Amino acid sequence: MTREIMGKIHSTESFGAVDGPGVRFIIFLQGCHMRCRYCHNPETWKSNEEEYTLRSAEDVLKEALRYRSYWKNGGGITISGGEALLQMDFVLAVFSSAKEKGIHTALDTAGNPFTEEEPFFSTFKRLCAVTDLFILDLKEMDEEKHKQLTGFSNKNILAMARYLSDHGKHMWIRHVLVPGLTDEESGLTALHDFIATLHGVDRVEVLPYHVLGVPEWEKLNLPYTLEHVKPPTPEEVARAEKLIGTFA
Ligand code: SF4
Predict the structure, then answer these.
(1) Which of 4, 54, 172, 234 is deepest in the core (most CB within 10 A)?
(2) What's the pLDDT band for 64 if we cut at 50, 70, 90?
């Protein structure tokens, strides 16, 4: 029954190498409420019918399983977005079946839909039970700056990190480094201090801002507000990594 649950699929990738351990099958879901100024996948934002393929959890899992022989060294399935937590029933269906088959599951999320209110929270707790790894973007510690960067508060996102920490879940934490926007010393130090209070963090990474997604903004006729911003230099990345205290 659960396997008949449908998901709005943006795309799949057979040999992902960065979104979780080992080689992974990545499922990118359609739809995200945030509007990060540096988003490199703005085509995943809207949930219009022409933007996605509707597929069952069983069908997507069947496709993923074709690649199982490559999932050595902790590889498996990652569900990403868009924002995967907007389609929790689908993620739950895929991961529940995957766990029955002994497959490693990772959820790549920015945490924006997280709330301890129902009906979200009950499903989230069930999802936690079948998710081996959460890959969580922490975009900005200061709430006002987070709003300017993404259009939303970060309170519930930090609460989600806290919840995962308190409930023994494994996490990778990522921070996109945008020169002049998310690279202030105070912000990076605050991020370091917050991460230091969490349990279960297996990796902390800085992702350098890049401009590969800009043509997508142009194609969608969306105003891109960071056209003056250049990707960080290796020295700027090293400085941020030191301040945040990255490790793998
Ligand atoms: S959360 Fe991710 S998909 Fe959504 S706008 Fe931000 S970068 Fe883009």
Answers:
(1) 172
(2) very high
